[in-house]
């Protein structure tokens, strides 16, 4: 059952950037958009299991560092080959300067 | 001496998967995230400037070639046009395929499709082929883009300086794809959902070539083919010359790009044609960095890399004796020395594959 997890401080992520968040045996990517909204997706690219947190955030796109495949991190949709499979996304909320993710 | 099977459906590919060499984690030089973000930053400016120069020069050379045809005075203009068509388009195909040349996606896509046509590389097929090349660089039986296999097919490589093998295969595959079929090796790395796109592009290309040949026959002139198609042959030499240096003579089946890729300092003209891919270790280690930031990346990490070759000639002087040796000893390769400031090679990751260096 999903639960809200305290993932990081809101200031840990720069605007238009991403960080890696590991919880248990799972890995996630948490994004801060140019508009200061926070998003969370699975941490590994659906193409070759590379950590997306090493990639580049361009507006609302996360680009995988290995093959430059792209996802829209707001809804996880695959936007550019070689990725074809969408990324799972998770709800987030910010309270008291902390980012919580529901995973 | 080990016999290698480079076929993607062969036994070496299966062995690589079993040995953990496929889709493995590779060595990276440490760079703080903030610096890496700055290096990865996209910008339309440099690529727009270079693309205007490239297409402007192509139009000017082609117009001069046509105007002076059939006099021998037209030859230098055709040779210049050919290098831009048959070689500069290789690097544009490459960079725009990565999506790093321009910040604006449609610009990458447009130039990628034009360059793919010039190089006769199906843009869908080759996107997947190149993704595999980056996942499994120089892993035997996994990487579909190994140019100098062991033993090196030197005659084939020489023919390819004139595009004779690659272009012929490109045209043949275009016809096969246009007929609705895929090569069995291609099918190993192209997802099913993408296969109809391969066929659709091949049909458009076949129509363009058909129209070009029709005009050539109707006008009883080879000129239309001098502009479309033939420059892939008479202008291929530069991209083969530089491409061979990327990995030629270096280690196979390793997980460190410092062992299997080569950085070479080149003259400004070659760097324009090649779009800075002479910084090849850097490109493979960090494929998100755009071509115009690679010199900066090189300065940042060169303490951790083997010393670059100082010229194309010096790089060939290093590589050719190794290729020659590989004709007899397939296991021979060149292990390039790291500077004292570098982190050592993790040879424990791939000690069995490494074997004994040629030098």
- Supply the helix-strand structural class of chain A: mainly beta
Report low-confidence residues of chain B grouped into runs of 5 or more.
none
Number of strands of chain B: 0
User: Helix-strand pattern of chain B, N to C?
Assistant: HHHHHHHHHHHHHHHHHH
- Biggest interface, residues from each chain: A-B, 18 and 22 residues
Number of strands of chain A: 11
Architecture overview:
- The complex is a heterodimer of chains A (103) and B (359).
- Chain A has a single domain, classed as 3-layer Sandwich (Rieske Iron-sulfur Protein), CATH 2.102.10.
- In chain A, the strands form 3 sheets. In chain A, strands 2-3-4-9 form a 4-stranded antiparallel sheet, with no helix packed on it. Chain A has a 4-stranded antiparallel sheet with strand order 5-6-7-8, with no helix packed on it.
- Chain A is globular, with a radius of gyration of 12 Å.
- In chain A, 0% of the residues lie in helices and 47% in strands.
- Chain A has 103 residues and is mostly beta strands.
- Chain B is mainly α and 359 residues long.
- In chain B, helix 4 crosses helix 5 and helix 4 (75-98) packs across helix 12.
- Chain B is globular, with a radius of gyration of 21 Å.
- The A-B interface holds A 17, 47-49, 54-56, 58, 63, 65-68, 70, 80-82, 84 and B 23, 36-37, 40, 42, 98-100, 103, 105, 124, 127-128, 131, 134-135, 191, 193-194, 286-288.
